[in-house]
Amino acid sequence: MSLPTIPPALSVVMPTYQDPQCLALTLRALTRQTLPPERFEVIVVRDGGSSDGYAEALAEGAGLRLRVLELAQRKGRSVARNEGARRAAAPLLVFLDADSWAVPDLLERHLAWHSTPGNAAVLIGRRDEIGLADLPAVLAGESRAIARAFPHGGDLRFGTGLPDDGGDWLRAGWVIAYTHNISLSSAHFAQVGGYREAFGLSYGVEDVELFYRVDRSLPDGVNFGYDDDARVVHLPHHKNITRNWMEMKANFQQAARLYPCLEWEFLTAVMGYEAIRRILHYRALIDECVERSACAIGPAAARLAGQLRGHRTLWIGTGRAESGLPASALSFDYAAPIGRTNFHLLGVAPPMPPGSLDAVISVDFWRYLLWPELCQFISASLLLAGEVHLVATADSTPGMCAADPQTLDYLRQAQAAACTAELRVVEGLGHVLTLRALQPAAGAARRVPAHTAAKARPTALAPGRTATRE
């Protein structure tokens, strides 16, 4: 019996590359959906590779509105998904992977979410990991028997297998918006230009980068929803874990160069749910800093500028415009707009090359950093400049650590194993802890000429939102 010719309400887009054993099970699961088959279509994009096993796998989709696109050679998941989305006939896109075995009401839940006025623009579904212990239940189609908790189950994006109560994490939901189970409108997808195809064949990050752009294209607020019952199971298949991690790290670094902002700076070092926690924590502190006009650069610039090793400086704080800094000076000032010389970063993974600066000066802003981030900031700054000045004024906000002489002296001693540390009082300013590398880093053995450093600075800036949301 042929399916009706009415337009589908939902299009499932799935790339596949040499995993027909997974695709067969996933297509079989889609034939068991509670959403009637005439209401959705399935677009499978075979991304090159061997065709062995695919005829049998595709036969498992009998009864579905199934279309198969064949790419002559492998292009990567971004290209494959874009090709599928371009051919989609429905106003709603659901992205699954070929190894995303779906529970029976998965598509019905995605459609119901987007049919409800006021719901967020993107729905993230759950993905449970399984091992061989739960494979028999999958093969038998018994989704209720599949574990939701460690050791054989659980969504690995969350430390406990489940997100925290409250949903605050959804304000940065794009960080874990992976395309093994996620949906959005075709219009939103087209508006942002689809997946970034420059990632090519390398593994990972293309989905996070896409949904970062989706989030930025929408009004400020919570643009992601999560449905723990819109569930898929990640089917076991061969992975080169070491290679995948290396490629993913390189892709995070590539994206961080495109978007020099706090979120991507964190994602070069911390992934998943923990990255969301850190991002939201620092966002709140930065908002507090800007609201209170704390961390003023001006007094430090007036009293320290003549004491620095050179003119190639990075100033971290607020009030750049009133500080009298030269136009060529770099700054991380959240109260000022992003531009060629101002970025909204913490400094834990800055995009400037080693040895490209003479000094890094943080005015009170360093007092917001948790200990791991403070250590990262100091290490990264010493690579950039070889000289770091931590200024502690008498000003304070509830989010700052203490800056009394005893605390600062302990910090001086704690850093002494890695660098020379000098604590002094600067009249009219406060305490200044100056840290200098014991020996030049390999990349900073010689100073980079000013014109070379300028060329190395990132020019592809993230599209602007408000200064505190960037």
TrEMBL record:
Coiled coil: none annotated. The keyword Glycosyltransferase applies. Keywords: Glycosyltransferase, Transferase. It holds the Pfam family Glycos_transf_2. It comes from the Bacteria. One of its GO terms (molecular function) is glycosyltransferase activity. InterPro entries: Glyco_trans_2-like, Glycosyltransf_2, Nucleotide-diphossugar_trans. It is an enzyme of class 2 (transferase). The keyword Zinc-finger does not apply. Residues 448-470 are annotated as: Disordered. Its EC number is 2.4.-.-. Residues 11-127 form the Glycosyltransferase 2-like domain. This is Glycosyltransferase family 2 protein. The lineage of its organism: Bacteria, Bacillati, Actinomycetota, Actinomycetes, Micromonosporales.
